[in-house]
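The instructor's notes for this session suggest beginning with a concrete chain rather than abstract definitions. Hand out the sequence below and ask the class to guess, before any prediction is shown, which regions might be ordered.
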Amino acid sequence: MTQRSFNYYGYARDAYYSCSSLIHSMNKNHILILNSWFAIVNVFYLVFSFFNLFGATQELMLFYMVFTGISIAFEVLLVLFPSFAERHNFSTVFASITILMTYGIIHSVSHPYMPATMFLILLTIVSVSFIGRMYLMIALVFTAAIAFLVTSYKFKTFSIAYRDSYNVAIVATLAATLHYTFQRMRIAQFILFQKDEQTRKELEIKSSFDPLTMLLSRGYFFSAAEEIVRLVRGENMYLCLLDLDGFKGINDTLGHQMGDKVIQTVGKVILRLFDLEKTASASPNGI
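After discussion, reveal the predicted structure:
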C-alpha cells in the first residue's frame, strides 16, 4: 500500500473524491448527532454541579454553562445554515473536534486528583465519527493527545499524570486504528452505493428507449407525455402521429429483417430532424 492510498483509507485519490458529497453529508449528520449528545451531557453535568452530585461541584457550573451555550449555538448554526456545513465541511468538522477536545482537556484539569476519562471517551468518539484524510486525522488526534498531556503534567500530580500518559497512549493508538478501519468500510459502502446508482440509472435509461429505433419506448412516452400535459395545461399543444404506409407489405415480401431496417431508418430520420430543429432554434439566424 502506497502512502497516497493510505492517506485515502486504502483507495485511490479519485475514488475518494468521487465520494466527497456522501462524505460531507455523513460528516454533517454526525456533527449534528454528536453536538446534540454533547449538549445533553452538559445539561446533565450542569444539574449535577448544582446539587454537588457525582463529583460535579458548584464551582464548575460556569464551565458547564459555557459549553452548553457553545453546543446550542453550534447546533443552531448547523440547523439554520445546513449548506454551510457541507460547503465548508472540513472547517465545520475541525470546529466540532476542537470544541470536544478543548472540553475534554478542561474537564480533566478541573478534576486534578482523578485520571481523565471524559477526554479519552471524546477522543474515541471523534475518531469513529468523521472522515477526513488519514494523515490529517492522525495529526489532529495526536495534537489533542499532546495538549492533554501537557496540561495533565502541569496541573496534576506526577502519579496521576503518569497514569494519564499511559491511558492516552493506548486510547490514541486505538483511536487511529479505529478511524482507519471504520472510515475505510464507510468509503467502501459509498463506492458500492455509487456503482449501484450508476447501474440503476443506466438500466433506467435503457428501459426508457426502444432498442431498435432509439426512440422513447411506449410506456415512457405516455408517462412523459402525461407529465408535459400536466405542466403546460392551458397552453396550445401539438401532437404528431406517423404511420408507415405499406409497412406490412415490406414484412410480407422482404421479411422481418428488412422491416426492422425500415423502422431503424425512420427512427434515425426522426432523430436527425429533431437535431436540425434544435440547431435552427439555437442559431440566431436560423438555417
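Then share the key points. The chain has a mean pLDDT of 85. The two ends are 58 Å apart (CA to CA).
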